[in-house]
Amino acid sequence: MHIFGTSQRTLLALCAVLTVGIIGCSRPLSEEEPKPVSWASGFRMVELLAEDMPLNSQDDLNNLLDADWYSSINVVNTRSAEEATFTNCNDYSAERTPETWTLRENEMNAFLELIVMCRITEVLAKAGNSGVTHIPKSVIDASSPEHYPAAVALEISETESEKNASDSSVRYWSDVNGSFQVNALTPEKVKFHHDAGIQQLELVGRGDFNGDGVEDVLISSRDSVEGGRYFNLRLFSLSVDAEGAWYMVEEYHL
């Protein structure tokens, strides 16, 4: 034990005088400062509730899931009945199916806003602190289409999606949606205009969402078609590996 301790101190001393980045001298993950779960200005669950609720820590997130929305929503195609009324996120989580839809067509956009915030709240509530991060300072910017995985792309038809999935040359977002015009609304929210439509991407949270100790980012995408009625909201988590490559951690179904 004494010999092992001496060797360990010698290694640490060598690491202290060598330049940063030499292989084997970086601190192990367990010694990194933990990075707590956090949410950005794009997380607006508290604004969609009937009453003010505190949001000071991760523990408060679970309380938001049981709080009443600013309005109840009548829906069809639930698990236990053809029609139901959702009043909070837990109602939605317990009864949702892939075919759950609003009874009134004009309430669908409001329903999407509510349920994407519910999913964000669920994901953040279950997330863990991360021990290391490779996320760059700028999470979303004009270069994102060249680096984000193809799954971020706006694909309106199943045929297009299947075709892209089977094409090995399709790796990045830009491989699917072509040329982009970029409008940075805030440092955390950027609108992308391209051939398929418009995507407004927004950073809504950070944390370890898959339990590997590496920091991930939670991003929402508001999808629409210029001059059309199509509108959708998506949610996914992305991360960056040690070599600087972005990859999809998970795309969450609403």
User: Could you state the oligomeric state of the chains shown?
Assistant: single chain
**pLDDT < 50 runs, ≥5 residues:** 1-31
Number of domains: 2
Describe the biggest sheet?
A: 7 strands, antiparallel
Query: How would you sum up the global shape?
Result: globular
Secondary structure class reads: alpha+beta
H/I helix tally: 7
Query: Helix coverage percent of residues?
Result: 25-40%
Explain this structure.
- The chain is an alpha+beta fold and 254 residues long.
- The chain folds into two domains: 38-126, no CATH class; 144-252, no CATH class.
- The protein is 25% helix and 24% strand.
- It is built from seven helices and ten strands.
- It has helices at 2-17, 61-65, 89-95, 108-126, 144-147, 158-165, 173-177, and strands spanning 38-39, 73-76, 83-86, 101-102, 180-186, 189-194, 197-207, 216-224, 231-240, 246-252.
- The strands form two sheets. Strands 1, 5, 6, 7, 8, 9 and 10 form a seven-stranded antiparallel sheet that branches. Strands 3-2-4 form a three-stranded antiparallel sheet, covered by helices on one side.
- A hairpin with a 6-residue loop joins strand 2 (73-76) and strand 3 (83-86).
- Helix 3 (89-95) packs across helix 4 (108-126).
- The longest helix has 19 residues, at 108-126.
- The N and C termini lie far apart (54 Å).
